[in-house]
Amino acid sequence: MSLVTINDLISQPPEILAKYMMWAGDLLDMYENFVRDDDADVSFTAGWNGAKSRSDGIHASEMSGECRRPVYYSLKKVERVDKELDPFWKKRFRVGHVYHAMVQEDWRRLCESSGGLMSFEREVRIDPKLQLIAEQYNIKSSCDGVITFRDQPWGAAVMRIALEIKTESPDQFAKLNEPKLQHRRQTCVYMRCLDTPICWTQYINKGNQNIKPSKHPFLFSFDHRLWGEIENETKDVIRLATINEVPPRVEGLSCEFCGFSEVCKPAYLAKAKARANAKVQRAATQKRLRSNELRQPKTGGA
Ligand code: SF4
């Protein structure tokens, strides 16, 4: 009896699935207890890749948003560019990368301390050379980690859980009652490619380091319906790419950090730029007016 593959969600009796889901629900307690008892000297490497070094192929993050154009541009091998990205976003992403590296290192050490009952694989590669489904759609990505539970030290795997680490601002964290849709879609791609039956989206509050529970809805099993949607959309974009028909833009906040905005030129960014310029102009005008007032000789008085 195990919960190792997506097929196990169908082939195992409900009471076995419930038992494993309960077990998986302890992930947060395990993590908190590990951090509480941890007094080791620790160092870890954190880093990130620039847009240019990203490999070609479709990335799970491009399949997760509302806009289909990033998948189209990826299929057309359009180069991603992020040098125009607002430093506000760059700084946020950098902090996110450091959190990821720290939490991945925690999970690695936690699993190492289990004496072979658990193991952790970080940055699990999704690549056409490794998985059939990735080959079918030319998906190149990586999942933050996969935690494997074993029935005895270094024995057979009995449960596999995909781990997706997400950092949120205190305000966003407070509003979060379930994983964001784009994160559900992104993890659905990972789960399908890596054949993992369960996933925990480990949301972390960047303000106070609180973490959302490893329970429903943040802990969930593979969603066949959602995968069907993503797969159909991807097939449709592949069809459009073969006839050189660009899918419609779906503009919004995601345009601000889209690697294809230079070629896509969404009106959203032009408007945002115009608003930012107007704000700078207003501030400069107010500054000029204030300094003129200060230069005016004071009149009146007895
Ligand atoms: S810039 Fe916006 S509209 Fe254009 S591809 Fe990116 S997300 Fe879509």
Features:
single chain, 14% strand, alpha+beta, Lambda Exonuclease, Chain A, binds iron/sulfur cluster, 302 residues, five-stranded mixed β-sheet
Description:
This protein is of the alpha+beta class and 302 residues long. The protein has a single domain (8-267), classed as Alpha-Beta Complex (Lambda Exonuclease, Chain A). It has twelve helices and five strands. Helix 5 (69-75) crosses helix 10 (224-242). The protein is globular. The mean pLDDT is 92. Iron/sulfur cluster binds at residues 67, 69-70, 249-251, 254-255, 258, 260-261, 264, 266. Iron/sulfur cluster binds next to helix 5 and helix 11.
Largest sheet: 5 strands, mixed
Radius of gyration: 24 Å
**Mind telling me which CATH architecture this is?**
Alpha-Beta Complex
Helices, by number, come to 12
Principal-axes geometry comes out as: globular
What amount of the residues lies in strands?
Answer: 5-15%
Strand adjacency order, main sheet: 1-2-3-4-5
CATH topology: Lambda Exonuclease, Chain A
Provide the fold topology.
Elements (H helix, E strand, L loop, with lengths): L7 H4 L2 H11 L2 H11 L22 H5 L4 H7 L11 H26 L5 E9 L5 H6 L3 E10 L6 E12 L1 H6 L5 H14 L3 E8 L13 E3 L2 H19 L18 H4 L2 H29 L7
Iron/sulfur cluster binds next to α5 and α11.
How would you sum up this structure in a few lines?
The protein is α+β, with helices and mostly antiparallel strands and 302 residues long. The protein has helices at residues 8-11, 14-24, 27-37, 60-64, 69-75, 87-112, 132-137, 170-175, 181-194, 224-242, 261-264, 267-295, and strands at 118-126, 141-150, 157-168, 198-205, 219-221.
